[in-house]
Amino acid sequence: MKKAVLAITGIMFVLLTAMPLHADMRPYTWTYGYMTPAKGEIELEWWGEFRKGKDTDLYKPRIELEYGLTDRWVAGLYGVFEKEGAESWGTEIKLEQRYRLFDPGVLPVDTALYLEYVHNFKEDVDELEGKIILSKDLGDFNATLNLIAETAFNGEDPEYGYAAGVSYPLTERIRPGIEAFGSWKGNEQEHFVGPSVQVSLGKVWINAGAGFGLTKESDDFRARLIVSHELNIF
Questions:
Q1: At 9, which helix (H) or strand (E)?
Q2: Over the chain (234 residues), what is each successive 10-residue block's mean pLDDT?
Q3: What's the number of domains the chain is made of?
């Protein structure tokens, strides 16, 4: 599995650095933004996430492919891997749909809907996750909120969550921000807060963020890196 992850990561790196890019800015690392790829655009992404837990550390790389079906509707497919201690495995495959209800500025708050189907190979269970994405621009300043609900088809309690961010561009290429995110299921709650930044490098754009745990159930620390590439081939 380790060799497969490294091979896929290598292929993604070649694709990300070899193709011409015309991408919208993505302000956040943990919070889904309102904008979607244009019709015909393909977005390739490599995600790396590190979780420093109370007893063990977890690394979760992810490969994602998104395609703009229309200027407002995007479909995505991605696989998630995990490495915990000496063990590594492919854990999930996800199918994503994201739809912007209107063009930016038509509503007082820009609104998009997100629906995701997940098959968890590790636990052999199917899951469904929904998000409402709310975003508001005030000049160059942006604030975005995700309201999240997730259910597994195995009789367990549903899980609810949120992610929120505020950001402001320092330059055309650099946009720092602050994000908070968390979830609760039954009596257990996880909450995090930390900085994030988006950097455009011309052919690629990079998001990096950190979250520091605020509750006893939370990991001590989480970090995420996203390398993205958008292209228009149709």
A1: helix 2-18
A2: 47 45 68 92 93 89 94 95 73 95 95 96 92 96 98 91 97 95 94 96 89 96 94 64
A3: 1
